[in-house]
Design brief:
InterPro entries: Phage_head_completion_GpL. This is Head completion protein. It comes from Acinetobacter sichuanensis. The chain is mostly helical. The protein has one domain (4-139). The protein has helices at 27-34, 42-59, 83-104, 111-139, and strands at residues 15-16, 25-26, 77-78, 81-82. Strand 1 and strand 2 (25-26) form a beta hairpin.
Length: 149
């Protein structure tokens, strides 16, 4: 277990698996790419990852009728992994980052804490947008959807 006061962590080796259709999520890897330190415990992080996996899987459920595994939709391989694995990880990681930033920004109630919260608002919105874009790419949809009224 990491020393929480300075935010250090030790490897947890926790892998979150869902339906075999989707790739597994490595808690340590997602902690690194989203830059979440030890202030967020492994148990809390695992819970939020599971919530995001459930949400992303629900949004992508229609793809299960098209292929056997999500990676079967891949058009290219990047660093020996299907591009769909990266997009799936991006969707989960960006949803996770939005939730973590939203939940942990209010612990500092000083003026700097309030300013950081206001700055994080854009970051939370950016994370949500990036999650949506990754999901749309996996579905083969454009980023912009325009509807005439």
């Amino acid at each position: 277990m990491g020393f929480v006061a300075n935010g250090n962590t030790t490897p947890s080796q926790i892998i979150i698996k869902s339906d075999p259709f989707y790739p597994s999520i490595d808690l340590d890897h997602i902690r690194k790419i989203v830059r979440i330190d030890g202030v967020v415990t492994n148990d809390r992080l695992k819970q939020v990852i599971i919530e995001e996996v459930i949400d992303v899987n629900r949004l992508l459920i229609s793809l299960q009728t098209q292929v056997e595994k999500l990676s079967d939709l891949s058009k290219t391989m990047i660093d020996d992994l299907p591009d769909t694995d990266y997009l799936y990880l991006s969707a989960v990681a960006n949803g996770l980052a939005a939730k973590i930033n939203e939940n942990y920004r209010n612990y500092d109630s000083s003026n700097t804490g309030v300013k950081k919260a206001e700055q994080a608002e854009c970051t939370v919105d950016d994370y949500r947008r990036n999650k949506q874009w990754a999901i749309q790419q996996l579905k083969g949809e454009n980023h912009t959807v325009v509807e005439l009224i």
